[in-house]
Write a sequence for this structure.
């Protein structure tokens, strides 16, 4: 008899006979039960990771393909239900990777690893807290239509994108993004419905589009080491920018921003706007561009 406060669910895995170009397709899933919210942790050392909204009857569906090499990475998926809170863990690492005492994964430098594709569909209609730690590769996170309480994304040397094409149906406490040597883009960030957002970029090119609906004040921290970051904000949103001046970096803004005092700039509609962004920007070596959209 299952303990109603601690239940481990059966994970269904199907290895199909259908072949992709380089191997077989694998499908794993967990059926929905009595969950009122779910904590999701995703980690991957290499590969292409794609996340999007799934249906209402499954907590998660995972699709990936195996190749013919015996060293292909294998999916590790664990799901537990404690009371009415689900705990989902997804991991994919090379066979010869090593885990240290702190739980981090290190990949041997002589490992001949081929890029893998990994597709994750998360349940619709249940509040989710998502933490994703990704290494080298490519990631595409489409959070449109999901209910999100918190989101934290960390990527290494990668090309990554996130999008919120539909409003988040839950209030998000924090959206945290950290990326290393990379190219990163985010679209319709105001639809995330966050109270606070933080973005940390190492070396690369970053594009942050704050499109979508905003009907309150929200705080945004942007910290970039070496690179170019572009912020695009709708004209309907009031904006206050605090910028840490540096002779190694350059800030350019559209003409409607007014300098209030050293390092503080406001859009002309800041006091009257229904939605407002308070943005703190710190840049090491590079350039920061703030642009308005319709």
């Amino acid at each position: 008899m299952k303990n109603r406060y601690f239940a481990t669910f059966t994970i269904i895995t199907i290895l199909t006979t259908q072949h992709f170009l380089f191997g077989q397709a694998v499908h794993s899933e967990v059926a929905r039960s009595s969950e009122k919210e779910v904590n999701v942790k995703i980690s991957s050392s290499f590969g292409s990771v794609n996340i999007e909204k799934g249906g209402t009857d499954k907590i998660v569906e995972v699709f990936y393909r195996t190749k013919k090499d015996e060293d292909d990475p294998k999916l590790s998926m664990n799901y537990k239900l404690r009371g009415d809170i689900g705990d989902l863990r997804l991991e994919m690492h090379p066979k010869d990777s090593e885990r240290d005492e702190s739980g981090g994964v290190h990949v041997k430098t002589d490992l001949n690893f081929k890029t893998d594709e990994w597709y994750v569909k998360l349940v619709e209609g249940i509040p989710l807290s998502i933490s994703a730690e990704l290494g080298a590769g490519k990631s595409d996170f489409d959070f449109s239509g999901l209910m999100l309480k918190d989101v934290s994304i960390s990527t290494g040397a990668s090309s990554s994108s996130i999008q919120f094409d539909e409003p988040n149906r839950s209030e998000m406490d924090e959206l945290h993004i950290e990326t290393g040597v990379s190219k990163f883009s985010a679209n319709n960030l105001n639809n995330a419905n966050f109270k606070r957002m933080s973005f940390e970029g190492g070396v690369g090119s970053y594009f942050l589009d704050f499109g979508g609906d905003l009907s309150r004040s929200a705080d945004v921290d942007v910290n970039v080491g070496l690179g170019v970051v572009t912020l695009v904000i709708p004209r309907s949103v009031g904006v206050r920018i605090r910028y840490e001046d540096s002779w190694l970096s350059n800030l350019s803004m559209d003409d409607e921003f007014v300098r209030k005092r050293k390092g503080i700039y406001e859009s002309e509609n800041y006091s009257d706007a229904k939605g407002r962004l308070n943005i703190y920007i710190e840049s090491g070596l590079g350039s920061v561009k703030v642009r308005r959209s319709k």
